[in-house]
Amino acid sequence: MLFHYHFWTPYVEETEKFYKNIGFRISQRIGKYQGDFQAFNPPLTWDDFRDKSIIFRIIEARKGAINITFGYGKKIKFDHIGFLVSENEQNIICEKADKMNWTVAKGERRTFITTPYHFRIELQTSEDIVDSMNDNIKIQKLKLETKRKGLEDDLSILFGTPIKNIQTIIGNTVTITEAVIKDSLPKKLVDPNGVIISNESLHSI
């Protein structure tokens, strides 16, 4: 199940505010302060630490079966998308990635696969990474811009089935241009990192 994407961005506070305004809850904030990584989780608000020059490594926003993370970067950069899979599925996918000569970095809680398309794929096996497995709120489709052709075919090989909720266009950058979610958004919106957020009933890609 496609559940996740991650960006680096200079607009960390603005990105958090955007997703909170469309119903996401902030589950954690981890940032580097005075040389150490520390938690600044809710109920703390930005008014509690805005003047402390924290470099946020990760802020996590959750809603239903969606998990979106972002951290500080000097410029906007799309880093990875994430799929929730079983342990058996993860092992099979990793074996296929090895055969495709894609780099696999296995961890206890998550695994990252580096693609030749200049972004990574996260494989997550723990359902507690999302608030709910309810299909009423989930990522319906992601539209990705890439610099080279072949991503959709390669994803079909990697996962052993067509990944119909990933659609690509060829362009001059690597990013997510649109996220269609199964939710009750009244209109299309654009997050601070240029991602169009739309409702499946309002727009189909």
Automatic annotation (TrEMBL):
This is VOC domain-containing protein. InterPro entries: Glyas_Bleomycin-R_OHBP_Dase. SUPFAM superfamilies: Glyoxalase/Bleomycin resistance protein/Dihydroxybiphenyl dioxygenase (SSF54593). Gene3D superfamilies: 2,3-Dihydroxybiphenyl 1,2-Dioxygenase, domain 1.
